[in-house]
Structures are given as C-alpha cells and as structure tokens.
Input
Amino acid sequence: MRVGIVCPYAVDVPGGVQFHVRDLAEYLLAAGHHVSVLAPADDDTPLPPYVDSAGKAVPVPYNGSVARLLFGPVTAARVSRWIERGEFDVVHVHEPVSPSLSMLAMWACEGPLVATFHTSNARSRTLSTLQPVVQSGLEKIRGRIAVSEAARRFLLSHIDMDCTVIPNGVYVDDFARAHVTPAWQGTAQRPTIAFLGRIEEPRKGIAVLLSALPQLLVRYPGLRVLIAGPGDPREVMSGRPEQVKAACEFLGAVTDEQKASLLHSVDAYVAPNIGGESFGIILIEAMSAGAPVIASDIEAFDAVLRGGMCGVLFANEDPGSLAAQIERVLDDADLRARLRSAGLQRAREFDWSRVATEIINVYETVIAADPRPAMMEETAPSITRRGRRLSAVRQLRRLTGGD
Output
C-alpha cells in the first residue's frame, strides 16, 4: 500500500504521538509498504528519508501541555500538494481535531481516510469551539481509531462517533535486550529509581515524586533518583531540601538507546503523572525493559497495569502514598521479580507486530469500502487536484473568519 501519515506535532520534540507515528511508519516500511510522513519540523532538524517537513511549528498551549503546531493557508496548500504527490491508497491522520496539519489533511483528503485519536481529556474547550467547522471533515473519516478506552469515550462524548480501540505500540524486544549501564544500577544501600518526562510540565508529576523523597530518604538515605527528559532542573528543584537535591541526578534528554538502558538498569520506574494521559506508553516501555513500575492510579495507567496486577499503583497526587509504594517495592525482591515477569508478559500484548496488524486491517477495510469511481483520477485529474487545494483553504477561511 501507499500510506500517507500526518503527525500534527513537531517531530524534533519528543512526545507519545510523535513516537507512535515514527514507529508505525518504520514498521510499515519494513513490511514492504510505501510510507510518507508529513510533520512540522525546524529547518535544521535532521529527518528520516520518509519524513517530509511542512514547515516550522510554533508552541501553543494544548491538552494541558505546550504542543508545537503548524497551521495557516500556506500550510494548507503544502498539505494539499503532499497529498497530490503521494497518490496514497490511504491517508492516516493523528489527532485530527488539533489545529494543525492533521486537520488540514482531513479537509484536503478525498480518498480513504483513517484517524487516530490520542486525547482523553474529560472536557475540551478547543474542540467545543472548533466542532462546527471540524464536523464536515470528521464525517469524511472512514476508519476511526482510539488508543485507549478513555480516548474512545472522549470521542463519543465530544463528537458522538464511535471507534475501534487499538493501543500504542512498542518494539518490546528492543527494550528487553537493552544493555545494562553499571552507573545506573542500584545496590542494597543505594537503590535507583527512574523518572522520564518533560520535567517542567506539571501533568508529568515530578513535583509529586520530589515531595515523596524526604519520607523515602529516611528509609533509604542513599537512594538515587535518575531523572531523564528535557527541561531546566533549577525550576523544579527551587526550594527543595538539600537532601532531595543531592538524591536527584538529572540526565537531560536521552536517546532511545539510553532510555532503554536506563529502564533496564534501575530497580524501579516511577510514573507520578497527575492526569491528561490517554494511554501510558512509557509504562509499556518500562515493563518491556524489565523495570518494576510504580504509577499513579489515573485511569489510563490503571488500565495498562490491569488494576495493579502488572505494576504497583499509588493514590494520584499523594506523595505519602507514592513513598509507601516505592518502599514496598524496594524492600521486596520477590515482589520486584513478580512485577518484572507480569510486566513483560503484559507488554507483549502491545508489541508492534500485533498493533500494526490491527491498523493495517483498518486500512484494508476503508480502502475496500472506497465508493469513488475507479476512473475519477484518470477522467478529471486537474479538477480533482484543484478541489483538494480549495477544500482545505475554504475550510481554513471558515475557521478563521476570512472571506
């Protein structure tokens, strides 16, 4: 198949949607399909050969975070030209209700269209505002995917459309076979726990972890907290006790290989996220690498960990509960062994070999159901291509109030 995938967020910034798009594209390429990805990217960003840049994105508050998005009439024309050149059998957009490339591609696409919804916020002012304009594009989607039941309910409540649940994927063996880094291994006196995420983003919950440390350091004075991810440590550490500052080691942004090695080396992985997560891909990565997982009991994490069967849950935003569960895991070697075994078994359910097969089944279904006359492109190519360009631009003008 010829598959066009649209990522709404800048690929030079790490994020779950970006990783999902990248891994799916590479799986499809390895399986022999033709794949082109369209995404925002800075001019100096090195891109894989299958990624086309649609231009530089700008930071916009979105979904409880700051997303780098790209929008506007010039971008709409670029999206339409990309669809024309690609001659895709199917176009797959991610987060089509975000004001970025996916929305423009949804408007411009005239053939088989698949959309994956990642968001699971209980309420969305952005979507409520945009829905009258976005609705016509949403009705063109023939294959709707949500990455979790929470994301599916979001779609049902905001758009009144149902969808198929297909989770995010992980290359499980890449994490399971990661090498151990001795500097990140713990000992009985100096155990190690890890946190990965954008440290300045409140919903990632690093403040909860830092608040739990004074209690933990009484039991484990040699505890090391390895913190990986972009952001300025000075901001999150401001005002923290000196003993907390001494326990934390900031690694900065890490490569995929370093992330896998970190998760494979530590005694436990901590996910203190306070909300806004529709799935929890980092939990699957940690379990794939053999790290016992300790996570907040938000809905998305509870579902991944099967109510605590494959990891340990603590009361969301409760530092005391988090400290108690970390102590419980670090004190019990047998528990850690059980969590590693159950976690790896659970992670196998999310391997890309399974997830991509389900997505391909959706592609094949929408292609087979395409009602367009087979000769449409051959009989009126110029009209069709012009129509694609005008569709996106007209919808954009409606959205922005232009004439």
Remarks:
- The longest helix spans residues 381-400.
- DSSP finds 17 helices and 15 strands in the chain.
